[in-house]
Amino acid sequence: MTSLTFYGGINEIGGNKFLLEDRDTKIFLDFGMSFKKFGKFYEEFLQPRTLNALGDLIDLGILPNVDGIYRDDLLKNEGRKLTKEPVIDGVIFSHAHADHTWHAALLHKDIPFYCTEESKKYMQAVGETGRSTVFSEVYKYKENFVDRRKKPEEIRKFNVFESGKKFKINGIEILPLAIDHSIYGAVGMIIYASEGIIVYTGDIRLHGLNNELTSEFIAKAAEEKPDLLLVEGTRVKEAVHGNSEQQVYESVNSHIANTKELVCCSFPNKDMDRLNTFFNAASKNKRKLAIPAKMMYLLELFDGKNVPKADEVALYMDRRSWGRFEEQDYDGWQRKYLKYKNMVTFEDIMKNQSKYVFFCDFFNLNELLDVKPKLGSSYIYSLSEPFNEEMQIDRRRMENWLNHFKLPMYKAHASGHASGSEIKELIQKVNAKKVIPIHTENAEVFREFSEKLKIVGVEEKLSM
Fold first, then answer.
1. Euclidean distance between CA atoms 392 and 322, whole angstroms
2. Does pTM surpass 0.85?
């Protein structure tokens, strides 16, 4: 028998956790963090307890209560039944955004992960440069409640696949195909199970720089005459797709050209298409794009492949401790950057404001106190609009900062998700026997697109 159980990504945007069972094989399609569920109970200064990480999240309904999949170190500390041998055979990641990957950090260390090389690099970057926690460290397994000197961290079991090349997990065959999304390495999947063919879109769009990839995926999916289509619907209520990435470039270029002094900006730090947009617009206006160390780390991982080379941008290092730019004030991974010839500080930006486009997102707004943008500077906001109360509060804080420095805000953004019209086109072309909306809070809207709709509930098991 072939079945799917939906442990997340239903009646919410993100948090995808779909358990596919086929004969003796069990695999998860993504295992992401549900920001909606997590945000009901936690925020920046109220975080889960590491000592009871699994129990707390399971009790609150943030994690599924499934035996045989979680980490033994956490289970043991909570007095729970240990996982002698994992009951699932792997997790396939559609892409490396947190709402599709982060809670995989809580899975047993012997469960293999399957993803593209790009997705693996993103997860490596988060692990090496982020605030490592038991909830977000997917790339490495760091056992808790032990002496780390005796049990050092280890890289998880990654199996890297390539777009267009089938691979097998026991009896299930999977064909991953590159699609266009706001992060490199994203794939949709065609899954050949014993009782039918399943198409999983992951997060997808038709209006990006690489929309031909999405079109090719749709064409191949249609060719296979699938039994089931799992299709995302983040923006299903929006009739049109909005800006394309080319339009974002044109807008950014215009704003830079019309700004006399410093241009500050924010954009998704994993969106390499958007980084290229700002880099190209800055270069056209004879400015340097100044990026933080975390973004430089990513550039070096991608090594000039579809991204600027490391020496083509300016590396902005913020002050730590006493502000002397001394190695001991920085984390180990950052220290080498202090020796880079293209490293700049607040003084370089402050004294040469017309020569830079300065990346300054919400978490670095206090750098403006050092940089001191002059009258005639501007701020380009290249992110999605706030969609919950906490994001709206953060947005108001950002506006307070910008108002303080008299920085006008200009918006230039293209979504990483398909619009309603694009979703309708996808559904009609693939023409699956059954359509299940995922990654959406508006599943009912899909009724306008298909008579073959099946709306499922959380933890509902669907047999094929």
1. 33
2. yes
